[in-house]
Design goal:
Mean pLDDT: 85
Radius of gyration: 16 Å
Largest sheet: 4 strands, mixed
Shape: extended
Distance between the termini: 58 Å
Keywords: Signal
Helix content: 10-25%
Strand content: over 45%
Structural class: alpha+beta
Low-confidence stretches: none
């Protein structure tokens, strides 16, 4: 029974960390220090995976650690006809 509880706890922990957070770019504050750009929202550095949307519906998927963008970012551009 303990093993089952432990496995369920691990699954819940991993799924909680993998969830994306949705923000508008307007809600993100940037700070530049030389070549480094830090990203904040509500005076907290961004951490984890985010989808950052434009008013047009286009968005960027990116992952942050302590306010720094890590890895590759993926931009989805919405074309309006």
């Amino acid at each position: 029974m303990r093993i089952l509880n432990f496995i369920l706890f691990l699954l819940f922990t991993f799924s909680a960390q993998a969830q994306e957070t949705y923000l508008m770019w307007n809600d993100v504050e940037t700070q530049r220090f030389g070549n480094t750009t830090l990203f904040k929202s509500e005076n907290k550095f961004l951490n984890g995976p985010y989808k950052l949307a434009e008013n047009s519906g286009s968005y960027t998927e990116a992952t942050f650690k302590n306010g720094k963008m890590i890895g590759a970012k993926k931009s989805m551009i919405l074309l309006v006809s």
